[in-house]
Design brief:
- By secondary structure, this protein is mainly α.
- The chain is about 50% helix and about 5% strand.
- It has a domain of about 55 residues.
- It contains twelve helices and three strands.
- A hairpin with a 5-residue loop joins strand 1 and strand 2.
- Bound molecules: zinc ion (ZN).
Length: about 260
């Protein structure tokens, strides 16, 4: 554990193999001392170990942007700073999300991968937009509507809200989806649906993603395309291509 480039998942496996699952309940200071004594662990690896344990203990990485911001730095081999906001690159965000989700997947039956909250999704989208990226492919696709500002707009009541790909195109306000009686199931009111309410909608994307998606696809397939440095879609796709390459490289660094 002296090698600073060790992957977070490998570090976690080493710890679980040696100390068993009860170490997940140890105080951070105990983990820190134990790793120092038993492994002479590098400082950043202690942070990665603590981050991995935090990712298993709570869902806050997926729900709270400050926790996300803090742990994402650890997962990218950076000693975190809680006080100041460090801008995270799209590459770093991809690595953080990929690692955290995989960490949960590794535990299989013992855990699950939470859904990212609107708060974290919006934080990721704002970081991406700062870098001139408004389309986000997997594993950041959940944040893409916030970056491209893709909204479901109701022509009848004027309601506007962010639109996720897998959702239906029915206005939740016109079908009383958020009324108290429907809230527990978060479903449209069947009677109102039958009467035809909620269907007069359109999906509006402020920043079109189609050309970025096409260009990125061509790059990923290794097709020979001429990237135009004055074309914003090409620049955005090139940034995403670099980010995906970086994430894939970090994934490969995993031993197991
Ligand atoms: Zn409506």
């Amino acid at each position: 554990m002296k090698d600073e480039s060790l992957h977070t998942i490998d570090i976690l496996k080493t710890i679980l193999d040696k100390y068993g699952y009860e170490c997940l309940d140890w105080e951070p200071v105990v983990i820190q001392k134990t790793l120092n004594i038993d492994f002479q662990a590098a400082k950043i690896n202690v942070y990665k170990a603590l981050a991995a344990i935090a990712l298993l203990q709570t869902d806050r990485f997926w729900s709270d942007w400050q926790t996300f911001h803090f742990l994402a730095q650890c997962l990218n081999n950076t000693v975190p700073s809680a006080g100041t906001i460090q801008e995270l690159s799209v590459s770093q965000i991809m690595v953080a999300v990929d690692t955290a989700n995989k960490l949960r997947e590794e535990l299989q039956d013992l855990s699950f991968v939470p859904v990212f909250s609107e708060e974290v999704s919006k934080f990721i989208a704002s970081q991406a937009l700062n870098q001139g990226v408004w389309f986000l492919p997997a594993p950041l696709d959940f944040a893409s509507p916030y970056a491209s500002k893709t909204m479901l707009v109701c022509n009848d009541c004027g309601n506007e809200e962010f639109f996720m790909d897998e959702e239906d195109e029915i206005c939740p306000t016109c079908t009383s989806k958020y009324d108290l009686t429907s809230l527990s199931s978060a479903s449209h009111n069947e009677d109102r649906l039958k009467l035809g309410f909620g269907k007069n909608t359109k999906v509006v994307t402020q920043y079109s993603t189609l050309q970025v998606q096409k260009t990125l696809q061509s790059l990923l397939e290794g097709r020979d395309i001429n990237l135009d440095e004055n074309n914003q879609d090409h620049i955005c796709a090139a940034k995403l291509f670099t980010a995906i390459k970086y994430m894939t490289k970090r994934r490969r660094e995993k031993l197991l």
